[in-house]
Each structure stands twice: as C-alpha cells, then as structure tokens.
C-alpha cells in the first residue's frame, strides 16, 4: 500500500502547471507558484547564509535572484498583513526580567541594574525570601541589587550575565538564555523559552529555571505577558524539595511614548503546597532614547509573613 501511494503521489508532485494549494497560519490559500520562485535553467541562486527568517519575496538582479530579508517570524503571519512588519512588541516586567524582549534584533545589547529596598517586613523564616533570586536564598534583610548585561546573538537568541547581591554578599552567578519561537494570530502573539542557571559563588548549589513565555498585543495601548515553568536546585541532598512551580502574569498599558504602566504578579508554589506571591504595580519611564527607569512598590506574601519593598531598575540600551 505504501509503495502504491508513493507511485501515485510522485507523478502529481512532478507535474507542473497545476498549482497545489498551500495554507498559511492565517488560513489564506497560496499556490506553489506564489511561494516558490520561477527559475530559468541559466539562472543562479545566490542565498548567503543569514539568520532566518526570510520572506518569500524575490529580487531580480540581472542574471541572479536573491531573497529580500524581511522581519518574518516562523510560526507567525509576518509579511501577510499591515501589522506584520516586525515582531510583536511587549514591555518587560520590572522584577522578573527577561533576556531582552522577545524577537530582538541581532547585536542589541542592554546594561541594567535592579535594586530592591526592603521597607517593611514581618517574617519568622529568614530562608523564605519572596524577592530572592532562588528558592533557597537566605533573606539577610539587606538591599538586594543585581547588575547585568544582555546581548542578542541573533534575531531569535539572546544571552545574559547577572550578579545578584544582597548588601555586599554575592549570592549567585546567573546565566540566562532565551529563544524566540515566533509569532501567530496576525502578529498579535509572540512566544519563546527562557532557561536560567544560577550557581552559588562556591558552586555548591545550582539553581535552575525553565520557562515558557507568551506575549499578547491587544491594541496599541494594552498588552500582556505571561511566563509558566518551574525552578529547583540541581545539587544538594534535598534538591527535589526545592522544586517550585512558577507563574508570572503582567498587564501593561502604554499611556504615551514615554510612559508605560503595569501590574506584575509572581507566584511560586512548592510541592508541599507552601509558597509565596508578589503583587507589583509599576511604571516604566523613558528618559531618553537609550535610558529607561522602571519603579514600583511590591508586596511579597510568604508562608511565614510578608515583605513590602520598593523596587527600581535603571536600563541603558543604546
């Protein structure tokens, strides 16, 4: 039966002139003639190696054809509508920072520093730090700050290096990787993955995080971003007990060209049902084309108490 099917399908695939319908994400039919270029036997095809994606538009340059690079994203509807001129732009949360926005441009880089100022706290368990970088981070009741640098190595892949401190104590060495999958739904949805590896300075404990990220653009003002995943220590006698389910959900309103208001929530739930929750209203202010300030007041509720902290992030992105 398989050989009979192949013998029937091969002639159909080889016969030209009868276009076969191909459907994109948006359900609009296209023929093979619309997708594949028509090449003469004497024509040569020049396709230099480049980061995908490329559009289906072709430019005639004398005796050769080349593809015209376009910001088209696999899995999405790039190039198919007026809204598909580039990847979806979604603001980044203040506390749970991303490794560059989803869909970066190759070569983009950013330097920023996060600072958390404890204002009021009531907790009997110093090992339960809702604003800490890891599930087993000890709360020293000091100012937490973390300088970092983020670099987009391609149009889909970005990497970051961060040094989280509390007071003058270096708590972890953080490396983050982020991959953008693409866009969908008429370029209103963009998604990807993020992985974080955070060893302690003595490399005794390795905290790891894996997240799925999705962003939705409702209109020119409103957008939302969510992250779903988990984190745990990779080393240690009781590392399984450190596993936490993570959910981050943020809602943003871009009021004007220089002001964005947002509400961020972070939830971490352990296997025994305990955990913490953070509610963080915030404002993002563009001071210049390269400098942005994000600030807010966060309420972190843990199993043994709560913490109220002021949070500030200063960003330089040329």
CATH domain topology of the largest domain: Porin
Shape: globular
Task: Pick out the low-confidence regions.
Answer: 1-85
Q: N- to C-terminal separation?
A: 61 Å
SS content category: mainly beta
CATH architecture of the largest domain, by name, is Beta Barrel
Please state roughly what percent of the residues sit in beta strands, choosing from under 5%, 5-15%, 15-25%, 25-35%, 35-45% or over 45%.
over 45%
Question: Order of strands in the sheet with the most strands?
Answer: 6-7-8-11-12-13-14-15-16-17-18-19
Helix content: under 10%
What would CATH call the homologous superfamily of the largest domain? monomeric porin ompg
CATH class of the largest domain: Mainly Beta
Helix-strand pattern, N to C? HEEHEEEEEEEEEEEEEEEEE
Oligomer: single chain
Q: Give the count of structural domains.
A: 2
Task: Tell me the radius of gyration.
Answer: 24 Å
Q: Give the overall average pLDDT.
A: 77
The description of the largest β-sheet is: 12 strands, antiparallel, barrel
Annotation field: number of helices: 2
Task: List its traits.
single chain, about 325 residues, mainly beta, Porin, 2 domains, twelve-stranded antiparallel barrel, three-stranded mixed sheet, about 5% helix, about 50% strand, globular
């Amino acid at each position: 039966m398989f050989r009979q099917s192949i013998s029937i399908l091969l002639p159909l695939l080889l016969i030209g002139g009868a276009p076969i319908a191909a459907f994109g994400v948006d359900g609009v039919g296209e023929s093979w003639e619309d997708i594949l270029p028509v090449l003469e036997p004497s024509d040569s095809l020049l396709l230099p190696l480049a980061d995908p994606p490329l559009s289906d538009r072709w430019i005639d340059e004398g005796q050769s054809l080349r593809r015209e690079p376009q910001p088209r994203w696999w899995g999405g509807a790039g190039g198919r509508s007026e809204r598909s001129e580039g990847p979806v732009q979604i603001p980044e949360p203040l506390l749970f920072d991303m490794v560059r926005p989803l869909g970066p441009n190759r070569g983009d880089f950013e330097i920023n520093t996060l600072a958390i100022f404890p204002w009021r706290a009531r907790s009997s368990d110093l090992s339960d730090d809702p604003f800490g970088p890891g599930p087993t981070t000890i709360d020293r009741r000091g100012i937490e700050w973390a300088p970092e640098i983020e670099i987009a190595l391609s149009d889909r892949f970005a990497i970051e290096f961060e040094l989280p401190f509390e007071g003058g104590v270096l708590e972890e060495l953080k490396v983050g990787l982020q991959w953008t999958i693409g866009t969908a739904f008429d370029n209103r949805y963009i998604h990807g993955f993020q992985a974080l590896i955070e060893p302690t300075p003595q490399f005794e404990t390795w905290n790891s995080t894996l997240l799925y990220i999705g962003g939705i653009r409702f209109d020119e003002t409103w957008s939302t971003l969510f992250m779903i995943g988990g984190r745990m220590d990779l080393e240690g006698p009781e590392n399984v007990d450190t596993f936490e389910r993570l959910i981050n959900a943020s809602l943003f309103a871009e009021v004007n060209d220089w002001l964005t208001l947002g509400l961020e929530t972070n939830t971490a739930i352990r296997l025994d049902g305990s955990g913490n929750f953070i509610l963080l209203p915030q404002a993002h202010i563009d001071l210049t084309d390269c400098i942005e300030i994000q600030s807010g007041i966060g309420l972190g509720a843990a199993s043994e108490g709560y913490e109220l902290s002021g949070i500030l992030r200063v960003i330089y992105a040329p």
